[in-house]
Design goal:
alpha/beta, 8 strands, globular, binds flavin-adenine dinucleotide
């Protein structure tokens, strides 16, 4: 039973996110990371998609490998950016052939240089419709607790998310550090009549420059209490410890508040995710 919708119906899920490797060395690292994290028995893992890039086949290669050679349930990310309907139809046929049952339908990151993007899809909702009508996949969508940076208002952000969640099986959120952002999002979806699972995405901070860059791109804020704690750290090891402690507390609080699962952004490293799991292990079961 590989569908994430079924797994979420049975209880809360644990999942890990990876990105596809670009070099042989990175592929070996991912292989080791997946093998190590597989011992934590995730309900599924997801593999990101390089929107607009020339390396899109890599996501298919990784999920195909997972399907064939591991016991892990993979979900392939898929984005609108630059795709024709014909491209997407061909990709979905390939995913069906390899036995992939889960797709995350996304808008996709726009090119950093601001260059225009061609393609048949404008919003994730359009792609979601095409994936969902095949009836062959459990489909998820992205949610942005602190509102997507391109949304003109909170109300419009929530209205478009609710539209997606009327069709999709579940959402996975962008990362956030204050639980209030997540709880407010869940309440706002309930007010729209949506009770589909919204799985929080957890990003441990292990590198201050990197997290600031990601937060600026995604519309998430790195709160003052966290930057103050990190600024007081005097070594990379201490920053790593703070990152793990903060993420572990957020996970524990989210589960206590009734979150339907935890989705961990691993950045293809096993050690940090493993340490967080160790901290929260007994809360998960
Ligand atoms: P959309 O739902 O299309 O929303 C984008 C903006 O358009 C929002 O402001 C929304 O409110 C607005 N909007 C939606 N519908 C309408 C409408 N009908 N009219 C007017 N406005 C509308 N990016 C990648 O490139 N590859 C990945 O693998 C990837 N994985 C991700 C995984 C997760 C869990 C998350 C949270 C994000 C991920 N992203 C990824 C980033 C994501 O693609 C970007 O944040 C993107 O800019 C928005 O994606 P979306 O699916 O929310 O888009």
């Amino acid at each position: 039973m590989g569908r994430i919708s079924h797994k979420l119906a049975l209880g809360r899920t644990l999942s890990f996110e990876f990105f596809p490797p670009k070099t042989t060395a990175a592929a070996l690292t991912l292989g080791r990371t997946v093998a190590e994290l597989a011992t934590l028995q995730p309900d599924f893992v997801s593999v990101t998609y390089g929107a607009g890039g020339s390396d899109r086949h890599r996501t298919g290669d990784v999920v195909g490998w997972m399907r064939k050679d591991t016991a892990i349930e993979p979900m392939a990310h898929l984005t609108c950016v630059g795709h024709t309907r014909t491209d997407v139809a061909a990709l979905l046929v390939e995913y069906r052939r390899t036995g992939v049952e889960n797709i995350l339908a996304l808008g996709g990151d726009l090119p950093a240089d601001g260059s225009p993007v061609a393609g048949d899809y404008r919003y994730a909702l359009d792609l979601l419709n095409d994936v969902a009508t095949t009836g062959c996949f459990s489909v998820g969508v992205a949610a942005h607790p602190e509102v997507h940076p391109r949304s003109p208002s909170r109300a419009s952000d929530r209205r478009h998310l609710a539209e997606k969640l009327r069709i999709a099986d579940f959402a996975i959120t962008q990362f956030f550090f204050d639980i209030e952002h997540y709880l407010r999002l869940v309440d706002e979806m309930a007010a729209e009549g949506i009770d589909k699972p919204i799985v929080p995405g957890i990003m441990p901070v292990t590198n201050v420059a990197q997290i600031s860059r990601m937060a600026a791109m995604s519309g998430a804020a790195v709160p003052r209490w966290l930057t103050d704690r990190l600024a007081a750290a005097d070594s990379p090891a201490e920053i790593r410890k703070i990152g793990i402690d903060v993420a572990s507390k957020l996970c524990t609080d989210l589960l206590a508040a009734g979150a339907p699962g935890l989705h961990m952004y691993t950045l293809n490293r096993a050690d940090v995710t493993r340490d967080i799991h160790l901290n929260i292990g007994s809360v998960l079961v």
